[in-house]
Design a protein that fits this description.
The chain is an alpha/beta fold. The chain is built from seven helices and 15 strands. It has a five-stranded parallel beta sheet with strand order 2-1-3-4-5. Strands 10-9-8-12-11 form a five-stranded antiparallel beta sheet. Helix 1 links the parallel strand 1 and strand 2. Helix 2 runs parallel beside helix 3.
Length: 249
């Protein structure tokens, strides 16, 4: 099941887009949809805080009070890894949409075929993201952790500490191999970047590449080894530009 949040301040648009989403779900038997509809970004934000977020967000950009862009940024600050699809009447917000790490950007009036194509891509990406896991040996036994839940991993003493999107952390048993070898299952995924001898970050959660460190969602600062700033910026940029929807315009 995919939990979807639709937010648009115009009643006519909410009804039209809502009907298209229901039509899409009806045409895809494997797409089990639970849709919540909101008329303001603040209402959606409150609901996301209460339920822990949605899998997919379909958001208008130009809304009073809290714009779709600001709403997306706030959702990311809540560690919401949900996929964001923006709908708007103007292309001028395309660059701004990257601040919220949008999956796709569609112009209104939305063509049903184009929306359905984007939803197919989003559903496939969600399924792949949820399926990718790493096995971590802990004192309590073996635990499977989804890659999309890992913000970053670090060597802490003789263990690997996984910092998770919900603010918690998970420590492995004592490791005897170099950190890069222990982090190999993460680094095999394009989302992860080795930013030093003891840190690997999930590029999805990086909010800025600054001198000497990477700033993460939630405010954490992960050290960046000298000489890696340029590579980090390229990998971070490529991660978003190469993602499905990067050529939406």
């Amino acid at each position: 099941m995919i939990k979807l949040a639709l937010c648009d301040d115009e009643a006519e648009q909410r009804e039209a887009i809502g009907n298209l989403l229901r039509e899409y779900a009806a045409s895809r038997p494997s797409f089990v949809l639970k849709m919540s509809i909101f008329s303001s970004g603040l209402d959606l934000l409150a609901a996301a805080e209460e339920c822990g977020g949605f899998d997919l967000y379909v958001l208008d950009i130009v809304m009073p009070g809290l714009s779709g862009i600001d709403l997306g940024v706030r959702l990311r600050e809540l560690y919401s890894g949900g996929t964001i699809v923006y709908l708007t009447v103007s292309p001028e917000y395309a660059v701004d949409s990257y601040a919220a790490r949008a999956f796709y950007y569609l112009m209104k009036p939305v063509e049903p075929a184009e929306l359905f194509r984007v939803l197919d891509l989003a559903a496939a990406a969600l399924e792949k993201r949820k399926a990718a896991c790493v096995a971590v040996r802990t004192k309590d036994g073996l635990e499977r952790v989804r890659l999309d839940e890992i913000v970053y991993a670090e060597l802490s003493g003789r263990t690997v500490r996984y910092h998770l999107a919900d603010g918690s952390s998970l420590d492995s048993l004592t490791v005897r191999s170099p950190f890069q070898e222990e982090a190999a299952p993460l680094l095999a995924d394009q989302r992860f970047f080795l930013c030093g001898a003891s840190f690997a970050v999930n590029l999805f959660y990086v909010t800025a590449v600054e001198k000497g460190f990477l700033r993460m969602d939630g405010g954490a600062r992960v050290p960046l080894a000298r000489g890696l700033a340029g590579q980090a910026k390229r990998r971070w940029s490529d991660f978003w530009l190469d993602a499905p929807g990067g050529d939406a315009l």
